[in-house]
């Protein structure tokens, strides 16, 4: 189980990462780049962008806990993590792959 504050701390631990409001969520991005993750504290869920191959791999963990976002964004690699249902190690690994792999585009 991952608390929203823990997700926030991990997301902000990457060099140059900043947090900004985005619709009804907190958005995380590396300065000068596009958003790589969003956090909805109310629903205790986070969305993270991956390549489609990485998205499939992370969804393999548990289809009820990690799944493609249920709209057109899911078709582009955006993946929902139900924070109550996943271990902190999975979130850490997911954010690492996303930020270090640089799936998100230049803004």
Task: Name the features.
107 residues; alpha+beta; Aspartate Aminotransferase, domain 1; 6-stranded antiparallel beta sheet
Briefly summarize what is shown.
By secondary structure, this protein is α+β, with helices and mostly antiparallel strands. The chain has helices at 4-12, 52-59, 88-101, and strands spanning 17-22, 25-30, 35-40, 45-49, 66-68, 78-82.
Topology of helices and strands:
Layout: H1 4-12, E1 17-22, E2 25-30, E3 35-40, E4 45-49, H2 52-59, E5 66-68, E6 78-82, H3 88-101
Antiparallel strand pairs: 1-2, 2-3, 3-4, 4-6, 5-6
Helix pairs in contact: 1-3
Q: Overview of this structure, please?
A:
The chain has three helices and six strands; from the N terminus they run αββββαββα. It has 107 residues and is α+β, with helices and mostly antiparallel strands. It has a single domain (4-101), classed as Aspartate Aminotransferase, domain 1 (Alpha-Beta Complex). It has a six-stranded antiparallel sheet, with helices on one face. Helix 1 runs parallel beside helix 3 (88-101). It is globular. The termini are far apart. 31% of the residues are buried. The model has no long low-confidence stretch (mean pLDDT 92).
């Amino acid at each position: 189980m991952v608390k929203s504050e823990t997700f926030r701390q991990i997301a902000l631990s990457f060099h140059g990462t900043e947090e900004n409001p985005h619709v009804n969520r907190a958005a995380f991005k590396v300065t000068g780049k596009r958003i790589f993750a969003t956090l909805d504290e109310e629903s205790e869920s986070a969305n993270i962008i991956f390549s489609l191959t990485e998205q499939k791999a992370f969804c393999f963990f548990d289809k009820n806990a990690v799944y493609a976002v249920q709209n057109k964004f899911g078709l582009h690699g955006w993946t929902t993590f139900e924070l109550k249902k996943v271990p902190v190690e999975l979130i850490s690994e997911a954010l690492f792959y996303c930020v270090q792999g640089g799936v998100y585009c230049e803004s």
